[in-house]
Amino acid sequence: MISPVRKMFDGIASRYDFLNHFLSCGQDVLWRRACCRELRHALKNGDRALDENCAGEKNCIGDKKCASDKNCAAVRLLDLCGGTGDFAVTFEKFCGKPAKAILGDFSYGMLRGAAGKKTSAAPVQLDAMKMPFADSQFDVILNGFGMRNLPDARGGLQESFRILDNGGYLCVLEFFSPRNVFNKFFYKVLAPLFIPVMGAFFSGKREAYEYLVNSIIRFLPVDEFCRLAEECGFEVKRVKMFDGGISFGVFLQKPQKAADASQGSVAR
């Protein structure tokens, strides 16, 4: 049986990219680029790179790669909850073609939307809570605006931890529950008025964009999410705020000598 959330995403897949860019005024593109620049610097310079500002960022202008950086050819990449593949496309644009790349999402309609895009990622329909991969299969997992759509954030983090290799990175780009006055006003007053109306106008699916706003309000604040990630075994390497906290990039790393934290965290 198809879940209501999966059915909803199937229904908006054809207008998903356009509305993402329109409703964010194109900022979602810049957020993905910023995350991939950070990851590129970390992959080149080791696990301490995310503790500092990206030294090579000044060379990463627009869609260009840092001339001094090497191609991340050995990386095994998973774009999880990847939808139409924009995060994978951006990663390859900045970091080069990975050794292996998977675009994973539970919505077949969204995966079809990736057809024709410049990515080597193979589309795989999957459940992010129980993925069809063996342990330690990936070096980088991207999760753009998908974590809050999972039925259980802890379970999603544990499963990502399981399939990530030691020393690997999980980059979560997400709208977290608002904490400051500006973001509370934006998400609780402006967004419920504006986003469902625009979503209905362009896609005919008002309820999908009402879900979008409500899912943000119901989700964890970024500080609580980071604590949860640490309970699941991750090290929080960096939290990057975008546009006053409209969204955040959270960079997590599985320790080089990681214990099986997935079992211990369940009992907490």
List the keywords.
Rossmann fold, 268 residues, 18% strand, seven-stranded mixed beta sheet, globular, alpha/beta, disordered C terminus, 10 helices, 43% helix
Task: Describe the structure concisely.
With 268 residues, the chain is α/β, with parallel strands linked by helices. The protein contains ten helices and seven strands. Strands 3-2-1-4-5-7-6 form a seven-stranded mixed β-sheet, with helices on both faces.
Oligomer: single chain
The CATH homologous superfamily is named: Vaccinia Virus protein VP39
CATH fold field value: Rossmann fold
Unreliable residue runs: 52-71, 261-268
Strand content: 15-25%
Looking at the overall shape, the CATH architecture is 3-Layer(aba) Sandwich
Structure class: alpha/beta
Biggest beta sheet summary: 7 strands, mixed
How many beta strands in the DSSP annotation?
7
Number of helices: 10
Give the overall shape, derived from the CA principal axes. globular
Count of distinct structural domains? 1
Strand order, largest beta sheet: 3-2-1-4-5-7-6
Amino- and carboxy-terminal Cα gap: 32 Å
What's the rounded overall pLDDT mean?
A: 86
- Helical percentage: 40-55%
Radius of gyration: 18 Å
Describe this structure in words.
The chain has 268 residues and is an alpha/beta fold. The protein has one domain (4-52, 71-266): Rossmann fold (3-Layer(aba) Sandwich), CATH 3.40.50.150. 43% of the residues lie in helices and 18% in strands. The protein has helices at residues 4-12, 16-23, 27-45, 86-95, 108-112, 153-163, 181-203, 206-218, 222-231, 261-266, and strands at 76-80, 100-105, 122-125, 138-144, 164-174, 235-242, 247-253. The protein has a seven-stranded mixed sheet, sandwiched between helices. Strand 1, helix 4 (86-95) and strand 2 (100-105) form a beta-alpha-beta unit. Helix 3 packs across helix 4 and helix 7 (181-203) runs antiparallel to helix 8. The protein starts with a helix and ends with a helix.
